[in-house]
Amino acid sequence: MTEVGDDDAAMLRAAFDGLDTAVIVVTPDEGVLFCNELGREWLGADPETMGPALFGYEGFHGFHEDGSPWPFAERQQWVDVLAGQVIDGQLMELRLDGSSRWLLVSARPLTRPGESTPYAGLGTVRDVTRQRAGRAALAESEGHFRLLAENAGDLIARHTIDGICTYASPAARDLLGREPDSLLGDWTAASTVHPDDVAVVVAAQERLTSQAEPYALRYRLQHADGRWLWVETVGRPVTGPNGAITEIQSATRDITARLEQEQRLARLALADSLTGLPNRAAMTQYLEDQLATEQPVALLFLDLDRFKVVNDSLGHSAGDELLRTVASRLAGTCRDGDLVTRLGGDEFVVVAPGLDEALALALADRIQRVLAVPVEVAGHELVISASVGIVVSDPNNGKPEAEALLRDADVSMYQAKARGRARAVVFTEAAGAHAIARLSLEGELRVALESEQLVVHYQPQVELVSGRIVGIEALVRWQHPERGLLAPDAFLETAEESGLIVALGRQVLAIAVEQLARWRKLPGCADLELAVNVSAAELMTPTRLELTLQLLRDADLPTSALTIEVLESVLFDAEGAVQAALHAYADAGICLALDDFGTGFSSLLHLSQMPIGALKVDRAFVAGLGTAPQDEAIVRALRSLTDDLDLGCIAEGVEDDTQRAWLIAQGVRLAQGYLLHRPLPADQLDALLRAGHGHSGG
């Protein structure tokens, strides 16, 4: 045997002291023969100096994993080792000075060269406290994972990086109607993913495993009963200590109901809730798509005629029923490729790809004929008609904007209404220019109202026999800064269409009432009366009557001094609000006169039900007096009617002596017209009244 010198021994000890494993050599008789530095540190003593005293050392306590004592420091333990017992990697908990450390212990017998009998036991001890804590944390994490997974509503699953399912939570029963174990060992997309979605799922898993990219997918899974469910799966990679992906964890939930709700909401966003037809947004989208093609596209803009009469007389429920009927008839009349939409109210639009103007007019005619078939609503038989505006795109003239086409069709629809309703009008550039001019005029009119460009002229109402001025009609004029003095025909239609008529009428009334109060103070003019024209929109303004009464009070005028004139068409189109307003004016003592009587469509029933105090015979009939027997017969009948109904009668448009003489002969007391007096500015009429024309003729 080769002897080891002191230097070699020192070198060997230094080598053993540098190990991260404790090394100890023990004999049953002599105790510890060798212990490296790490062993001395763990034991808290130098066992080489302890000799046999090592056995039974009380500062050292070892325990198995189950808590039972480990006899590492007992003599018998090492006797067994020398007898051939081998301890191979057993865990021991070392408790020393109040601390605890987990050690991995191995021991085996040592023999000298050439000898078969062991002379000592070699023990190696490695600290595995940290690794054991990691395994404990992993086990705890696993426990938490399973606790959460097995109580979650989502299907929690684990897969290998190849997509093989290694765990499925109990939610598989509720989500897929399948036992969790039936999914184990199955490739994720093999049997449950919809064939059209397999590629999407595979691509997401490949990105996750190759690039560690989490995914969130919507796809279809098959329920055990055969149904396809829309699900949403979130997948994330799980990495090991070296950062490599070891598995995929996923959570899957059923989103079928949510998607169906989203689809319902999407449909509602593009559909009219009343009729079920596509709405404006859907129409715009479809129109834009069709305009991108190389074919013409016809746009038909429909507005139902006199729909408000139905709504106000039969109620909104009846109006809704009528709209649904119209929607159904339109949908049944148009072609499969046409889109019928409801914009709102009583407005409908038809987008008809491939139609030129002639075919679009033919479609409009079919629509009119279908709508004209009587329909019973709320116990009443109704006949429907519509005013239709048509515009056709020209694919050779560039792609127009959808909104521009809709605007042009709207312009044409209003032209159709102006021409008598129940007809179709094709858009022309001239009509577009007129619409732009009307819009410009509206802006100028707003400025006029704010800057007091509106002035009032007054046309006297005269006793035909005496020539005395007994009343005046207030007539608005516009002192335009560039175009000069404009008559009402130039701007009143725009005022009514824009709603400015209410502010305009209020301004005219205030000026005229104030002026009347001054004229009534002139000699012979104390009973002078004022007539003003009032539109249906003004009548339906809730505060208009109170404003009128306040103006009269402020001017110290009786209500009998004022007459409001309404067109005959107001009675025919009379809405509940208009009728109530007319009665309210009459109850307040204000006289009501029916203007242009005989030119509209009112019936004697309307006349008898309204609190009308006077009729104004239209100038169209007065013009033929003395020359046209038919006009004379009509005026005689109207004159007789006013006597029978105890109404006043005023002839309009008297322009020659023959007409005047005829009216006097028929007993018509009052008239106005150019023969008697033209409309005059306030200062000229003031001079006329001061000259005595309020007293007697002239």
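Next protein, fold it too.
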Amino acid sequence: MNVNKTALFHLLVTVAGLATALLPISVLAASGDLFAADNGSNTILKFAPDGTESPFRSGLNGPFGLAFDSSGNVFEGDTGTNTIFKFTPDGTGSTFAFGLSGPIGVAFDSSGNVFEADYNSGMIFKFTPAGTKSPFAAGLSQPVGLAFDSSGNLFEGDVGSNTIFKFTPDGIKSTFAAGLSGPVGLAFDSSGNLFEADYNSGKIFKFTRDGTKTTFASGLSNPTGLAFDSSGNLFEADQGSGTIFVFTPFGTKSTFASGLSGPSGLAFEPPPAAYDFNQDGKPDYVLYNAVTHQTAVWYLNNNVFVGSAIGPTLPANWKVVGVADFNGDNKPDYLLFNSTSHQTAIWYLNNNTFIGGAYGPSLPNGWDLVAVGDFNADGKPDYVLYSPATRQTAIWYLNNNAFVSGDLGPTLPVNWRVVGVADFNGDNKPDYLLFNSSTGQTGIWYLSGPTFVGSAFGPSIVSGYSLIGAADFDRDGKPDYALYSSALQQTAVWYLNNNALTSSAYGPSLPANWSLIAP
């Protein structure tokens, strides 16, 4: 084993009768930026999707592992000070944990616990979100890389034994792969394949779920950190050459950034939580008053009401059909539709405050706007259209409010409608959430872009309730159902694992004349 430990550590528009100022459009959203721990310069660097580099945090001491929590805070394993630092999105730093012994790898589970590979002690420690520390695994030999699969199993690159170990959520250990040569970096793709940066051999290996090994890339120079973007491209920190390479899903290699000084850990800034208006990483309710046309935002912690604010009032004949970040400022906006004129519009928001608006494309006669989601993985939300006459769906791809192109989607069965869009099967591709109000049955149609690839029934909704949409309320990485009973003015959250109901809880009751419209 010859891993070098020093290197390893070391415009005015009118929208529906309201004159509004259209704010400048951000070409590149903050979410989707790549963060790299540059070990040699003791800096965390930030790269925009086009490769533009800027320093995020300097003055560190041997930064290596990086991981983001669900609120967009980045955690860094600082090997020189034996500390894990936490940095908010604006770069404000604080100490999360100290007194460690080579904190080289960090990873989050779906519950928000952070796991740390303690290189020198041969241990993996688990920290709750509040920082409470407990040992998760011991007796390892120079643990480095950590990565969780979609089932909550933790995989660990054990450099001293040249092995990848697998730990179940309750800590049961097994050997996943052996005979490697410096398994430093680990990352899973959306299909559940594990990729391993093999430091000494200069290769990246790919392992299927059953452990079948193939060579994905070779001829590298001390590959270290690995991270996938939302389009399935693999980014690799090539420590020996001071370069970050990017590989397409088919293995085509190109240079993303060069001239670095020991790039090590990589991590992509996560997109903001859907429907998160106050940017606390938790989805919120959007309410509508049909009498006054007023909207409101109710801030939630899971299913618990924590506060509220009045949102903008809608013009007559307009309704909110979805919420998404159209202008790339990491803040959710209203998607509006006028079924009389077939006009669409986007109202840009800062939390609950209206800051500007723009018309979107008008729909053809016979089509309605029903949902929103990013179907072509370009980081920009797209329209979901529906024709009641033909039951046909369609996807319109957008760049902010501008139509780019379109595709036909699958045709729906009789009595079914699309009520939401979310990634239910964890493949990083949005799926249709369907509801049959006649039977109360729900369904999930799994999609790849606009293409139907499979389906499953979800739980049936109890009498008196309607399925409004889906969001990840318990922050386990899996979308949940948002339900509403207009008769009782009661909301509820049904927690799901893909299409399976796991538990439920009542949400807050709404005042008279108000209804839940999103999620």
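About the second fold: The mean pLDDT is 92.
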